[in-house]
């Protein structure tokens, strides 16, 4: 079996766990990151997908993710509350530039590549799920890739997939207004399979969380509490993970306590980032152990 294709779900900080999974599988030669041909991803998954496409040394990438002082790097954007209110959220494109420009420069790549240019350099076919709110009278799921949006800048495409309403600014491209693809399709396995990809060559990482289950609003609830619960339950009502197909090479990354508060704390808490990384490592080790046990059972039949 040779893994050539990836599906990476959204889930905010769970992208660090996804990195831990991939690094562990790569280290143990279950897959080779250099063999990846396409990645289907949503939201935070789109961020980590772009990192994988660059094929940066895994140890270097881990140090960058865990040890970079993100609180200082993001300071000018995350503390501008007035901008969040007047501009429909934080400028996600600028945040992505902070994340990726050093990585692109380390590979001698133009820091503002289009999707087509990025594909020509990496030979990895990236598919980012986004939602267009300007499409007729309904929300429309859009697969953003180098064939459909060849002139779209990479940072804009990632931001379009991860623009959580009221937190991250929507992305405007031509006549479309793009927001977080996780609203409709946080785990794009069906879209990947519909493209004709062989399941034997596919690895999927599915991030799940049980945040705010059974929580309710009362007279003592703050506006923030009200908004967080409304947003989370809206996602759960519309989103389609429950109807996505399960595949043989699928890793469930269950971050049970991944609340929105933890989302906001991850960029400034190195110990939390280490914890999320370790969760991914453990999930990958369990996956490989189960695969070995399955092989032993098959050989004894």
Automatic annotation (TrEMBL):
Keyword field: Lipid metabolism
InterPro entries documented for this protein:
Acyl_Trfase/lysoPLipase, Lipid_Hydrolase, PNPLA_dom
Q: What start and end residues bound the annotated signal peptide?
A: none
Biological processes annotated in GO: lipid metabolic process
Q: Which residues form the PNPLA domain?
A: 6-193
User: Which Pfam families does the UniProt record give?
Assistant: Patatin
Q: Which PANTHER family match?
A: ANNEXIN, PNPLA DOMAIN-CONTAINING PROTEIN
State the protein's name: PNPLA domain-containing protein
Q: Which organism is it from?
A: viral metagenome
Q: What is the lineage of its organism?
A: unclassified sequences, metagenomes, organismal metagenomes
